[in-house]
Amino acid sequence: MKSYLLLFTVLACLGCAPANQLNRLYFGMNKPTGGAVSEQEFNQFLHQEISSRFPEGLTLFEAKGQWQNAKGTIEQEKSRVVEIVCDDTPENRDKVAVIAAKYKALFAQEAVMVIKSQSEIIFH
């Protein structure tokens, strides 16, 4: 009986608080019309669109990516990867989707890849 009560308590608590969600967004820096998103343009986007929605913090990486576009061409380009850890709520999921949509519209991108995973946060 005690083990069932413990299991029920654990399962009930899983729904008590939102889980931590790791959102990893991949932003290509090539513009389809030629040229690239400049550091200034990306930093402005980061400040206005990302940091304003997630002021708690984020991590930014410079990367080089490869992907196949809609025409089937394999492209390599400089990229920026932004990691945001937040509560897994509908509001935060919407914020991430808006960030991706705004980047696509602003820089004429075909896609912004977003990887979401559950995470456990530990500070040592």
Q: How would you characterize this protein structure?
A:
The protein contains three helices and four strands. By secondary structure, it is of the alpha+beta class. It has one domain (19-67, 77-118): Alpha-Beta Plaits, CATH 3.30.70.100. It has a four-stranded antiparallel beta sheet with strand order 2-3-1-4, with helices on one face. Strand 2 and strand 3 form a beta hairpin.
Secondary structure blueprint with pairings:
Elements: H1 2-14, E1 20-28, H2 39-51, E2 59-68, E3 74-87, H3 90-107, E4 113-118
Antiparallel strand pairs: 1-3, 1-4, 2-3
Q: Taking strands numbered 1, 2, ... along the chain, how are they ordered across the largest sheet?
A: 2-3-1-4
* Number of H- or I-type helical stretches: 3
CATH class: Alpha Beta
| Coarse structural class | alpha+beta
Unreliable sequence segments: 1-16
Q: In percent, how helical is the residue content?
A: 25-40%
Terminal Cα span: 37 Å
Based on CA inertia axes, which overall geometry fits?
globular
Which oligomeric form is depicted?
single chain
Distinctive features:
124 residues; alpha+beta; Alpha-Beta Plaits; four-stranded antiparallel sheet; 35% helix; 31% strand
Short description:
Helices cover 35% and strands 31% of the residues.
